[in-house]
Amino acid sequence: MSSSAPSPATVLEVFDTFGPPGTPLTTTEVAEEFNCTDRTIYNKLDALVNDGLLKTKKVGARGRVWWQPPRDPEQRANCKLNQDWITETPPDVDEPLIALQSGSEMAKRIRKKDWSETALGSMDDWPQQLQIAVNIMLSANEAIGIYWGCEHTLLYNDAWRELIGDKHPDALGQPAREVFPEIWGSIEPMFERVMDEKSVAKEQEKRLPLDRGEEMENAWFDYSFNPIPVADGSIGGVFNIVIEVTERKEVEKELREAKEQLEVATTAGSVGIWVWDLETDLVTADTTVAETFGIDSETAAAGTSLDDYIASIHQDDKDQMQQALEAAVNETDEFEAEYRVRNVNGNERWVLARGEVEYDANGNQIRMNGALLDITERKHQEKERRKQAELDAFRVTLIDELRPIADPVEMQHEAARVIGEQLDVDRALYGEVLEDGNTNLVHADYYRGNVPSLVGKHYLDEYGQYITEGFQAGETLVINDFSTVSELGDEEQTRYLQMDICAWIGVPLIKDGRLTAYFIVNQSTSREWTDTEIAMIEETAERTWAAVQRTQAEQALQESEKRLQQTNASLERLNAANQELINADTEAISDRVAELVLDILNVECAALWHYDETTGELQENACHTNSEIDPVAIRLPDQFSEQVWQTFIGDDIDIDNDLDTPENASGSLLRSRVLVPLGRHGVICAGSTRAGTFDEQTIGLVETIAATVKTAWDRAEGEQELKRQNQELERLDQLNTLIRQIDQALVRADTVTEIDQSVCERLADSDLFEFAWIGEFDAIRETIEPRQWAGINSRIVEDRTITIDDSATNQNPVAATVATRDPQVVADIATDRRIGSCREAILEEGARSCISIPLLYEETLYGVLTVYIAQPQPNERNQHVLDELGRTVAHAIHAAQKQETAQTDSVVELTLQFQAPGTVLARLARDADVKLQFKGIVPAKNGFSHIFFTGDQTSGNEIQNAGADLSEITALTCVAEDDEACMYKATVSTSTIVSQLATQKGAVRTLIFDRNTAVAVVDLPSAADVRCYIDDLQRTYSSVQLTSRRSCDRSPETVQDVQMAIKEPLTDRQVGVLKLAYLSGFFESPRENTGQEIADMLDVSPPTFTQHLRAAQQKVFALTFDEE
C-alpha cells in the first residue's frame, strides 16, 4: 500500500485507460491501480462525483460502481438533433449508406432481422434519411431510439437496450404503442406534436411507470423527441434521445429524507451517540441509545457489554447486524446497519446505526465511534411507498385488463381473475346487491382446483350476523382463520369451514347510503393477510364497481341509442300500420292487430284478446310469434286470462318486466310482458323472452299503438254501424211497405181463406222473404196441417202433417209455436234438424232460416204463420214485426169469422185445453196412463151421477185398477165393448167439468182426457160472449186455454129447440132412464145391456124400468106424430 494517496485528477485518468466514457469500475478495481486502501480511493471517487466528473451507483447491499459520463448531463438533456446530419445528400459512392460498421449487439441484430415483414420494409428500400439516422444512432454512446413511420416502428442502440430491460429483444421493429402500452397515454401527445408541428418536444425528470422487469417500476427520465424530415418535407420519424435519471432522483430523495430525518432527530433528540471499545468490548452510550435498547442510562454511560445491546435486537436482524460489525472491523473500517430493536416495554423501533473504526498512532484499532438514529417513521414511510408502488403496479395491471372489456359480467370475471392470481387465492368474486338489501347476484367468479363456483343468487342474511352487519356498516372484514373468529357462532364457523373457506376478506361498497355490491376473496387454508393485500382487494372492489358502472352506463347509452333507432323504425312501421288501418273494417283490424304489434315493437310474441259484446266474454282472438320462436313452446304465466280480464275492466296498462321463471322450465318462457287495454274492444298483449323489455320509451310506443288501434277500430265500427243502420232503414222501409200492403189486403179480404192467401202471397213476393205458409191446428188430433201457402213447391207442404209432441225440446218450431204460443226462430236450417224431413227440400228452395208466428187474438189461436228467409240468423226486428203481424192477421181472421157467423146460422166452435183439471175422469186417465173420451152423464140418486166414457180396449185392466184406487168412483163397469174400445159407466160422487162447459147454452161436442190434459170442443151460439165464457171457466179451471175458435154451419137454436121440445113433457126420472138406456146400448141391435141390467144400474125392478121407459117413449112419439 503506497504511502501517498493519488490526486483526484490521477484517479480520473484511470477511467480513460479502462475504456470509453460510461465504462463502470468498482472501488477495488481503481484501488488496485494505486496500491492503496479501498477507503482512500473511495474518498477520492466520492469527491469526483461531487464535482460532477464521475457518476456512481449502489450495487447490492454494500457494493458501488463508478463511471465517467460521456458529456455534461445538462447538455445531453437539452441536446437537439442536427438536421443537416440527416438531410444533407450523401456522397455518390457504391457502398450502402447503412454500413453498420459497429460491432455492437444492436448493429448485429438490425443487420440480421428480416425487415421485409415489418412496416419499414426491406433495408434496401429504406429512405436515405432513415439510413443516416440509424448510423448516427448506432455510433452514439447515448441511449437513442428511432420511431419511424405512422406506426412509429422502433429501432434502438445498445444504450437504449439497457433502458428497456425485458422488453428487449422483442421491441425491435415493433410499433411504439405495443412496446410501451403502459406509458402510451403519456408519450403519444409528444409524438403527435413532433409529427404534426415538426417541432422538438422534450421533458425533464419525467416519471414514467415502466414495465421492464418482473414488476412495474417507477423510473425517471430526461428525454427529447426530434423530428426526422424526409425528401418531401414531411416528418418521416422521431429521433428520441433518453437519459435515465432514476438513480439521481432516488439519491436526491434519500439525501432529502436523510437531511429531514437528521434535522428532526437532532431537534427531537432522537440521535444517540455510542462508543464501542474494541479492547474491552464495552459499549458506552448516551441516554437516547440507552432508552432505545431498554438499558439503564447510568449503566449505559458507565459501559456495558455489546451482548447486552445485541439481546434487544430483533431475532431476524441479529445476524446481518453482527456481520456488518465484523466487516467494518475486519475490512472496511465503516459500519452501517438498519435493524429493529425491542425495548423492555415491548415497543419495536427501527434504527440506523453508523460507526467508523478509530486507529491509534500505531495503526491499531482502538474503538468504533458511532451514532444511532431512530428511523422508525422512515421505515413506515418506505413500507407505505412499497405498498403504494405495489398498488400502483397492480392498479395499472387491473386497469389495462379491464379497459378493453365492454361486457359488465366479463369485467367482473376478469377483475376476480386478476386479483385471484395476484394474491394466489382459491376464489374471488364480485357480488351485486339488489335494492331489497338482501338478495345478491354473482354473475361470474374466479376459482381454482376443487373449489366450486358460486355464480347464482344468494342472500346476505345467510352469511351470518357478523358479516351482514359489517357489510351494512361499510366495514372491510378481514378473517385470517374462521375457526378463531369469536363473533361467529359455532354453526356459522362450521358452515364456512365445510365450504372450504378458512381465510376470507370481504369489501362492501356503500354507494348513496346503500350497500350496492361487495368483493370477496377467500382461501381454504388460514392466511395472514397483509395490509397491501387488503388494499389491493379494496382497490379491486372500487375499480370493479366504477368500471361496471361505467360499462353499464355505456351499455345503457348504447341501448338507449339502439332503442331510439328502433323507436324511429317502429314509428315508421306504426305510420305504415296507421295507413293500413285507416280503410280497414273491424274484421281486418281484428285479424291484423297482433301481427302489427309484433312487427312494430319487435318482440317475440303478440296477441289480441277481443271482447264479444254479445256473449260478454273476453277471448284470445289472434296470437303471433316471430319466426325464431315456436308458438307451441310459448308458455304464458298461470292465471294469465284473469290478468287480461283485470286489465280490460281496469283500463290501466299492466307491465311486468321480470316474470317468474319456474325451475327446470322448458320451452320459450316469457320474461316480460305488457297488457294494454283497447277500451271496449279488448286488450293487446305483447311479450318478450328478455327481461326488462318494456321500458318507459317502449311503453310510450305501446300507448301510441293502442291509441291508433282504438281509433281505427272506433272508426270502423262507426262506419259499420252507419252501414248497418242504412241497411236497417232500407229493410224497415221495405218491411213497413210490406206490412201496409198486407194491412190493405186484410181490409179487402172477407173470408179466412182470402186473408190466408193475401198474407202468404205478399210475404212470398217480398224481397225480404222466400216463401210462407199458414198451418191449421187440430186440438183433438194435436196436429198442424197447412191450409195456405205461397212461394214454395206445393208438394213440400200440401201433404205435410206436424204432430205436437209432449216434449218441448227438439220440437218442430211450428209445433213449439202452438205449444208455447210464442214465436220460434230457426237461425240456420242447414244445421238445425228440428225442421224435420223436409229440411233438404226447403234448403233447395233457397231458405236458410225461418220464423214461426202464432196467429193469436184474445188468447185464441187461429193458426201458425211460418216465414222463410234467405239468410241465416234472421234480424230480431223481423221477429218483432212478424209477431205484430201475426196478431193483426189473427184479429182479421177473428173479425171475418164473426162477420161470417153473424150472417149465417153458424155457431162458434171453441177448442179448449185444460192442464190437469183435477176432475175424476182426468185423474183416472192420468193414473191409468190412457186416453178417455167422455160420452154422457146421467144423474143418479143421492147426488151421484153415472158418467159414460170410452177407453182403449187393451187398457181395461189399467182403467179398472186405477178406478178402484179413486175414492170418488163408487162403481166402475164396462157396459159395452168392441174390437177397439170399451164403454165404461162410472158412478161418481163429485161434480164434473161438463156442467161448466154447458153454460151459456154451450153444447159439448167432444171431451177427451189424455193423461194430464183435457181437450173439449164446445159449440156456442153466435151471440154468446166468448170472453165472458172463458173467464167463467178460468174461475174454476185456471189452466184453461182457448186453442182455437172458428165458425161452423150449424143451427144451435134449432137443435136446442128440438131438444127442449123432447125433454119438456118428460119427467126428470123419465129423462134419466131414457138417457141411461140410450148410453148403455139398450136400443142397439143386438142390445149391449138388457132391461134387467139397466134396472140394476137404476137400482129398481125390471117392471119399474119398463114402466118409465114406455112412458117416455109414449111422450116422445106423441110429440112427433100427434101434429101430423
UniProtKB/TrEMBL annotation:
Domain PAC: 202-257, 335-387
NCBIfam families linked to this entry: sensory_box (TIGR00229)
Listed Gene3D superfamilies: 2.10.70.100, 3.30.450.40, PAS domain
CDD domains membership: PAS (cd00130)
Coiled-coil region list: 241-268, 311-338, 550-584
Keyword set includes Transcription regulation: yes
Residue ranges of every copy of the PAS domain listed in the record: 258-332
Keywords, alphabetical: Coiled coil, Transcription, Transcription regulation
Protein name, per record: PAS domain S-box-containing protein
